[in-house]
Queue: 2 jobs
Job 1
Amino acid sequence: MVLDCVIIGGGPAGLNAALVLGRARRKVVIVDDGQPRNRVTHESHGYLTRDRIKPAEFRKIAYEEVLRYPSVQHIVALANKVERLDNGHFRIELQDGHQLIARKLLITAGIKEVLSSIQGVTDCYGKSLFNCPFCDGWELRDQPLAVIGADSRIMHLSKMVHTWSEDVIIFTNGASVLEPEQQSELQDKGIEVITTPIAKLQHDEGKLQQVVLLDGRSIERSGGFVVPQFVPKATFHDTLGYDLNEHGYIQVDSMGRTSVDGLYSAGDSAFNGPSQLIRAAAEGSLSGAMIHGALMEEDWSRHPTAQ
Ligand SMILES: Cc1cc2nc3c(=O)[nH]c(=O)nc-3n(C[C@H](O)[C@H](O)[C@H](O)COP(=O)(O)OP(=O)(O)OC[C@H]3O[C@@H](n4cnc5c(N)ncnc54)[C@H](O)[C@@H]3O)c2cc1C
């Protein structure tokens, strides 16, 4: 059977697209391997009507809503190979060798963060260390915070974090990444910059307590932000050849269309910052509508109305 659309990635972007397509009676399969990006955190913030919801609860509600529509199917699997066929359809191969053929493909596989190897960072990430102040700044307001990062993005992040707490210390872990003017700006705001390499983060089940430096000092902090590297969770660039945006993710137009005919992307996969659940869901919704519109036009011209 040729499906109308396969969606690789069932996070908010993919699921909202599936909701639109299911309501439009499209035959859709969501392929998802169950590894959402925010699974490390206990609460999600900033999604109107769902502020402070647990990520697992959000996902449960979303799947219940989407799978009410009988033409939508969910396969728990990893999609590991994708190609575009000569007739414009897409062949999606799952890890177990199972294949799906679809007229349209939506990639909403998200991104993943590559965290610093400093001991304790992974344990604290999602519990007391985060990457996005819009997501978690409110919960850390007025606390003694660390901003940890070894590249130039640390300046912007620290300015941002300072709006939630004035007690901020920057840790560059041995890197010299701040210009002299930036250092004096930070000094004016009372933000200390510590360049000494970090030995480890002392924490209690992920709750940051101290940043322990290699010179033996321990600085008390109860939470903070890090500057991870972000990479696409799945990349099908080699076989599909879509254009990439300036951040290295899938380039889309304002409607979620990629440079490859019939291929769409939304959410973190087409990341161009800031990365948020509600934004991913909104982009997914738009892509779903665009995919339905494209399918409708194709079918309209293929099957003229009987006279
Ligand atoms: C610690 C942390 C806290 C956050 N807090 C918030 C917050 O409070 N508020 C907020 O708005 N945002 C928050 N975010 C950001 C938010 O999680 C993302 O912006 C959002 O999840 C993006 O949605 P998405 O649908 O694009 O991708 P995702 O939610 O990452 O979903 C992608 C899905 O695709 C699946 N997948 C990937 N590759 C494949 C493949 N090859 N085959 C099958 N399935 C695949 C994944 O397993 C995943 O289920 C947080 C992120 C992190 C890391």
Job 2
Amino acid sequence: MPTPIVYHLFTASTPFSLRSVKPTKPSLHPRRQCQISASGTRIHGRKLRAAVIGGGPAGSSAAEAMAAGGIQTYLIERAPAGAKPCGGAIPLCMLDEFSVPLDLIDRRVRRMKIISPSNRVVDFGRTLKSHEYIPMLRREVLDSFLRSRAESRGAQIITGLFLGLQLPVSSSDPYVITYTSSSEKTFKTLQVDVVIGADGANSRVAKAIDAGDYTCAIAFQERIRLPEDKMKHYNDLAEMYVGGDVSPDFYAWVFPKCDHVAVGTGTVISKSKIKQFQRSIRSRAGDKIAGGKVVKIEAHPIPEHPRPRRIRDRVALVGDAAGYVTKCSGEGIYFAAKSGRMCGEAVVSASERGERMVTELDLKERYLKKWDSEFSGTFRWLDLVQKVFYGSDQGREALVEMCSDEYVQRMTFQSYLYKKLAKGDPLADIKMGWRTLGSLIRANVVGKEMAKINE
Ligand SMILES: Cc1cc2nc3c(=O)[nH]c(=O)nc-3n(C[C@H](O)[C@H](O)[C@H](O)COP(=O)(O)OP(=O)(O)OC[C@H]3O[C@@H](n4cnc5c(N)ncnc54)[C@H](O)[C@@H]3O)c2cc1C
């Protein structure tokens, strides 16, 4: 569930610049290094074969890139008619970058209210330009569009449940995938050279390659159909509530969809109390959603950080399976599509459009390294912001106070909507840094953090 909240927050030209964060270095065991350099050989009489497991934004984008690049591509999705539990908010730049048609958008959010524990309300979208907004889509609509496009570029879509993966013995052996085919109701196998795991937070591909675990938040959401007059209130408005009552470490939201609002919350540290937090967000939203009819209740894990291992030999993880959701904002759709495409393009270029076998080193160099250098700083930064501002109600009050600052708003939205660090004004950045510190001191956050350090 993303909001642009403090996305940029003093990152562009301050000493905390994200650009200074070094990407993680891929580490290889020496024996595996030998195996890797032995492959990369030319394939004869056929093209490179790749299977993508999972047809969400990550999987479809990977499949599209590979099919368009000459790879024989299979996309296995267990539930093409399903709807991923999701807020469906995407950054504006995704429309252009992924050529998403405008008629898929349910709502254009131009006003974003952030509401503090003491119910102080700040309109966070004041600096948006007239053509700027946060597109809100239903996931069933977006996902089926992206999957169809992958198919039109040549990917073969298989409706089936991926069950397991037999690992190859040598660098030229295939992977053998087992799945149940929904149409034929039988177990089937498929031999491929490359596997991309895009099967979300409970990834079976990750398990098959022993990728290691990650911490997950649980997100709970109710879709509530409101009477027409109340729905009007949320026409172009999204709300974000912070407070220990609605979540001890995340935030709660009311997001407008086509004919209903999505009301939800999330937490990592108090999962057993999620229903209590949900009752609290409904009560904080109060009269604005009163009289609404709950049409759907859904819950799903949200990864908190990347997995310890994201590539093993010729298997790569992307999207939620890899752990690409930003803390603090809970944004993952764009990062899923982006990582899927990046990984698919890596396979295309390393295999010379399907003519050569790819290697682990290829995937590490062309996908993982590129991904980490572009995004790992953003992820670490938002991790830090969450720790400072979401840990206590004082921190949350400070966050809301800061969000009333027009400069914070402008820089945050620029970074969120366009996924580029907005060019800051050094003087304004310094002023903002002081104001931030002031907010934290007033909220007694700095004193408490110092006390913890001195303990
Ligand atoms: C309640 C909630 C609200 C959210 N709101 C937002 C938001 O507003 N904006 C945002 O950017 N992010 C949001 N997120 C995060 C976002 O939903 C994910 O980051 C994003 O969906 C990741 O895309 P993906 O393609 O990696 O995985 P998924 O979208 O989870 O897709 C995985 C696909 O794999 C398929 N699959 C899984 N296992 C198998 C198998 N064994 N065999 C075959 N297929 C399989 C699934 O059916 C699914 O289609 C939210 C998350 C939650 C839980």
